[in-house]
């Protein structure tokens, strides 16, 4: 809505291949796992015993707006197709806009930078303390 070309359509090719949490959960149910003779034999062979089964249904509501990161292909004059890139890069659909997506990833990168700096400083401090103790003990022995 509000674009300069109002008769252009975007077709999302294989949206289930895309990563990102763009669908909303509409149904979720936890059921106990069945216990029968065949199930017991399968459990004995695999070594796994299922306790419960989770049923979940997700869907994208009509009229939802998404931001897509992928390869854009022009199909004819009025149809644009968004698909997974041919070179193997990520294909992402997100329910937010571009700026909030980038802000979320920048915040995550800043968190990892801070943790790296704190870990590096802690390691350097411990190493300096060990080296000072080692050379301090050797200096005491030489007196």
TrEMBL record:
Domain E3 Ubiquitin ligase MUL1-like residues, every copy: 8-125
UniProt KW Amino-acid biosynthesis keyword: no
Reaction equations catalysed: S-ubiquitinyl-[E2 ubiquitin-conjugating enzyme]-L-cysteine + [acceptor protein]-L-lysine = [E2 ubiquitin-conjugating enzyme]-L-cysteine + N(6)-ubiquitinyl-[acceptor protein]-L-lysine
E.C. code: 2.3.2.27
Membrane disposition: Multi-pass membrane protein
Principal location: membrane
Pfam families hit by this protein: GIDE
Annotated localization: Membrane
UniProt entry keywords in alphabetical sequence: Membrane, Metal-binding, Transferase, Transmembrane, Transmembrane helix, Ubl conjugation pathway, Zinc, Zinc-finger
Enzyme type, top EC level: transferase
Keyword Transmembrane helix assigned: yes
Protein's name in the database: RING-type E3 ubiquitin transferase
């Amino acid at each position: 809505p509000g674009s300069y070309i109002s008769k252009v359509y975007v077709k999302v090719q294989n949206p289930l291949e895309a990563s990102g949490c763009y669908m909303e959960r509409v149904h979720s149910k936890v059921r106990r796992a069945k216990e029968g003779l065949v199930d017991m034999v399968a459990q004995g062979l695999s070594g796994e015993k299922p306790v419960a089964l989770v049923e979940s249904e997700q869907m994208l509501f009509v009229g939802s707006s998404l931001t897509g990161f992928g390869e854009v292909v022009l199909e004819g004059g009025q149809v644009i197709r968004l698909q997974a890139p041919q070179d193997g890069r990520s294909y992402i659909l997100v329910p937010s806009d571009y700026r909030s997506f980038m802000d979320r990833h920048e915040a995550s990168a800043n968190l990892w930078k801070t943790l790296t700096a704190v870990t590096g400083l802690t390691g350097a401090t411990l190493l300096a303390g060990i080296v000072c103790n080692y050379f301090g003990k050797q200096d005491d022995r030489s007196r």
